[in-house]
Specification:
By secondary structure, the chain is α/β, with parallel strands linked by helices. It contains six helices and seven strands. It binds guanosine-5'-triphosphate and magnesium ion.
């Protein structure tokens, strides 16, 4: 299949922030700096997920400083999946890159993903070495094994927050997960529609500021509940949107 050239690039960089007052500025500045280098048409979209600290205020200040930066606020907090899917739906550019708002990934590695868009519809970064406490890594391994088996996903790091999607995908799929299952939901629905997924290793860093919340019991229970619901949904044929065809809609050479 002939792939379109990589330039010019129309790109939204989005990240969810829940009580990330200590991280949102650093991540936004990095997104603007890297985004300006790689994209001709750039949007940086901060999703403030009902933070109770100064995240929203800092994000608004950054939106006033940079013309590319936009902020949307979920009120109240909707959870990781609710925040991520809001960013996906609100993105206005042709490609959507997302990462975490806590700075555990280096947006400087985004350019390494772009060449893979010539061969794949989606590019997914996997953490070379996950820099989280061992219990988190053990949980993640067990969870990943279960999810990969249930949804037949051949993805090394389903929840690695460093992926590029075509924006048009989000008009074609439902996103119901409000919790950690959102990555599995998007990838499995995309795979079902025939999107190909390229993978590349990326770095991961320990959280240096802000509160760790990813291992809360409530987060884990919600993920299991949503896992069963998604499994039922996909088994039942899942909601495909009208006009869907088996193949993804390709980006036009002008807009990639
Ligand atoms: N946990 C959590 N994160 C949210 C929520 N809404 C948005 N986020 C953001 O989602 C990103 C990922 O959440 P993290 O808590 O960093 O999850 P994680 O990296 O798996 O785990 P830790 O960093 O170890 O807590 C961060 O940028 C959060 O600010 C939410 O309701 N809960
Ligand atoms: Mg984190």
């Amino acid at each position: 299949m002939t792939r379109p050239p990589r330039s010019p690039l129309s790109l939204t960089i989005t990240f969810p922030c829940y009580n990330e007052e200590a991280n949102v500025e650093r991540v936004t500045r990095s997104a603007v700096e890297v985004g300006r280098k790689v994209a001709d048409d750039l949007e940086v979209l901060i999703v403030n997920d009902g933070s109770r600290d100064r995240t929203g205020e800092i994000a608004e200040r950054l939106a006033a400083e940079f013309p590319e930066v936009r902020v949307v606020h979920n009120s109240p907090n909707r959870g990781y999946g609710g925040a991520l899917s809001r960013g996906f739906r609100e993105a206005t550019k042709t490609w959507v890159f997302y990462t975490d708002g806590d700075g555990q990934f280096d947006i400087g590695e985004l350019p390494r993903l772009l060449p893979l868009l010539e061969r794949y519809d989606i590019v997914s970064g996997y953490r070379r070495q996950r820099r989280d406490p061992w219990i988190r890594r053990l949980n993640a391994w067990a969870w990943g094994t279960l999810v990969r088996a249930l949804f037949r996903l051949r993805i090394r790091d389903i929840d690695g927050a460093f992926k590029i999607y075509p924006r048009s995908l989000f008009d074609r799929i439902d996103m119901k997960s409000t919790g950690a299952l959102i990555d599995t939901e998007v990838l499995s629905r995309a795979q079902r529609l025939g999107y190909s997924i390229g993978q590349i290793d990326v770095s991961h860093y320990p959280r240096t500021a802000g509160q760790q919340t990813g291992a809360r019991l409530s987060v884990i229970f919600r993920a299991f509940r949503e896992l069963l619901a998604l499994r039922r949904d996909i088994r039942a044929g899942g909601p495909k949107r009208d006009g869907d065809t088996a193949a993804p809609v390709r980006a036009s050479p002008k807009t990639l």
